[in-house]
Amino acid sequence: MTTPRERVSAALAHRESDRVPIDIGGTLATSITSGAYGPLRAHLGLAPADPDAIFEQTQQLPYLGDDILARLGADTRAVAMPPELAFRPELRDDGAYRAWTDAWGATLRMPKRGGLYYDWVGHPLREVSDAAIDAYRWPEFETADELAALRAEAERLRTETDYALVGAANLGSGIFEQACLMAGMEEFMMAMLSDRPAAERLLDGITDFLVEEARRYLAEVGHLIDVYQYGDDVATQLDWMIGPELYQALIKPRQRRLFDAIHAATDAKLMYHGCGAVFELIPHLIDIGVDVLNPVQVSARGMGSARLKAAYGKDIVFWGGGLDTQRVLPFGTPQEVRDEVRRRIDDFAPGGGFVFAAVHNIQAGVPPENIVAAFDAAREG
């Protein structure tokens, strides 16, 4: 009998297995938000989740119970800090909002009524300049105790389960994204054109930090995980966000340096999370050592599943793209969801190289019966 780890390993090696492997909750972009998780548990007749057990604060991602993961057929598990040691921000009252400050000094807030996410509203750098960068205080790395807890959790999952393990050192975002979060998107994008030396200095500082963070993380768990996730959005749903020439000049060389460091520290496959219309980005990712693409936003321009598989299916694994989560999953009928899943599997699965997952995290308001229909159809193939 094929184990979940063997099933995912086959897909990563571009081989077919007994069925397409399934991921939900294995990464920070293939999970389910609190607003959808509670109704799903109630729909399945399961006990309510602990509202305080949040895996990722900004997107309000809960720790998914093994009961849900088993019911949906998940072949993966995330190597995450145990709930009792997970980061808990110091929330403060901000009028109609709850607010907190992240490790990088940015301010995030969420409406008290009806809020679903914490959004970045304040940036620690007021400008991209040598003076501002000189004065900036970089975040602290995880403590030895925190890294030991991650290692213990990875060792437990590796020895006591047969799931594929996914890890990520997530003290911040990707190289480009983190620069935008530190200075504000408008400020940083202007700096790339008006003060390139300062922009490059900021990018180098972020890259240095992420290289060291990955080194520390992988020294503890690199031999235990199957996939290492990194994310950096450089595209919108329609096109490049910054232009291919700026990506190639400023972002790609630094991503290459980071990815080389990751590959030197682990045999795990490298997953790149990049939303939007990334069809023209994919050759660059392959060139700098990316093995797996996520979330495979099939509703974005040029991102048809058949087109992606034909163009890049031999060179990269598609992890996601299992169904259109902007229209079909939230607004379709269960039968339309099943039909969509089967169509995407027909496009992506031949020859291996596909792990089924929704396009990014399942959002509040998605009917629970549609979530069940999607993952049941994926298991059936």
In short:
This protein has a single domain, classed as TIM Barrel, CATH 3.20.20.
Describe the protein in words.
There is one protein chain. Helix content is 43%, strand content 12%. The chain has 381 residues and is α/β, with parallel strands linked by helices. The protein has a single domain, classed as TIM Barrel (Alpha-Beta Barrel). The strands form three sheets. Strands 3-8-9-10-11-12-13 form a seven-stranded parallel β-sheet. A four-stranded antiparallel β-sheet has the order 4-5-6-7, with no helix packed on it. A two-stranded antiparallel sheet has the order 1-2. The longest helix is centred in the middle third of the chain and has 26 residues, at 196-221. It starts with a helix and ends with a helix.
